[in-house]
């Protein structure tokens, strides 16, 4: 379920209709791993944002849904270079799609599936968010990418509780992303996603998979506790190397103050 925003009844219906169409494409992508990410991610974004008035108002020069931005983007109190610069979006996005395709076609062993899937899902979700290729709708699109990675491995979909209904859920989400931003350690997002995934496996017959998820959570907590220095963003993905981007280079950790 997506946040309602400030839509009128007409536009709210349009947004909900978009989600239905988008989910149809995600299911098609899950069912056919040969479909390239470079085709499916822009298509998913188009299905989500087509006809949404708030999207058409974004940017000095509006672009069509599904088209990547060519301008710099800044949100809230984030540093000016927090997201990939506009001139770098297209090449970085191409490299991301290649890696996402590799993840989608990679065979994983049964005994490592949970840990590897959580890692791959966290990587796909976080890196897409830091590229932020579209003027708006990046979070929603990122959640569809996350869904594809998780369900392609035969696991249940991770469910994000709407932020408007649960401020604590919203804070947990933002805190995990912020902790990875400041530490350069993807373990924070992995732990957050693993916790949400565990909520989908509460039946008595799910004991084994809960144990595997709990093992991942414990290892990530230990990794977070043991970290003493800030890692560069390139520890998460080499594709960020050489970019004018916040936390690409190693900095002091934890931040002063």
What share of residues is helical?
40-55%
> Could you give a short account of the major beta sheet?
none
CATH third-tier fold name of the domain at 68-240: Fic-like fold
C-alpha termini separation: 38 Å
By CATH, the architecture of the domain at 68-240 is named: Orthogonal Bundle
Low-confidence parts:
1-8
- Looking at CATH, the homologous superfamily of the domain at 68-240 is Fido-like domain
Describe this structure in words.
This protein has a domain at 68-240: Fido-like domain (Fic-like fold). It is built from nine helices and no strands. It has helices at 9-31, 37-49, 53-56, 89-105, 113-131, 138-152, 167-183, 187-198, 207-226. Helix 1 (9-31) runs antiparallel to helix 2.
List keywords for this structure.
Fic-like fold; 0% strand; 9 helices; 257 residues; 54% helix; single chain; mainly alpha; globular; disordered N terminus
List the helices and strands and how they pair.
Elements: H1 9-31, H2 37-49, H3 53-56, H4 89-105, H5 113-131, H6 138-152, H7 167-183, H8 187-198, H9 207-226
Short description:
This protein has 257 residues and is mostly helical. The chain has helices spanning 9-31, 37-49, 53-56, 89-105, 113-131, 138-152, 167-183, 187-198, 207-226.
């Amino acid at each position: 379920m997506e946040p309602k925003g400030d839509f009128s009844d007409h536009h709210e219906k349009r947004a909900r209709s978009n989600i239905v169409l988008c989910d149809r494409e995600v299911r098609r992508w899950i069912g056919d791993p040969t479909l390239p990410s470079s085709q499916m991610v822009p298509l998913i974004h188009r299905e989500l944002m087509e006809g949404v008035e708030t999207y058409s108002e974004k940017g000095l020069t509006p672009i069509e849904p599904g088209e990547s931005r060519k301008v710099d983007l800044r949100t809230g109190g984030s540093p000016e270079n927090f997201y990939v610069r506009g001139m770098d979006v297209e090449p970085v996005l191409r490299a991301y799609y290649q890696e996402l395709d590799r993840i989608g076609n990679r065979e994983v062993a049964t005994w490592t599936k949970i840990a590897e899937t959580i890692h791959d899902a966290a990587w796909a979700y976080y890196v897409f968010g830091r590229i932020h290729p579209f003027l708006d709708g990046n979070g929603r699109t990122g959640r569809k990418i996350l869904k594809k990675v998780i369900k392609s491995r035969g696991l249940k979909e991770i469910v994000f509780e709407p932020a408007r209904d649960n401020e604590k859920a919203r804070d947990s989400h933002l805190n995990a992303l912020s902790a990875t931003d400041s530490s350069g350690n993807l373990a924070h997002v992995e732990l957050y996603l693993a916790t949400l995934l565990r909520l989908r496996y509460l039946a008595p017959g799910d004991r084994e998979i809960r144990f595997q998820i709990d093992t991942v959570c414990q290892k990530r907590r230990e990794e977070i506790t043991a970290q003493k220095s800030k890692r560069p963003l390139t520890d998460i993905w080499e594709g960020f190397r050489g970019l004018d981007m916040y936390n690409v280079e190693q900095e002091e950790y934890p931040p002063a103050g």
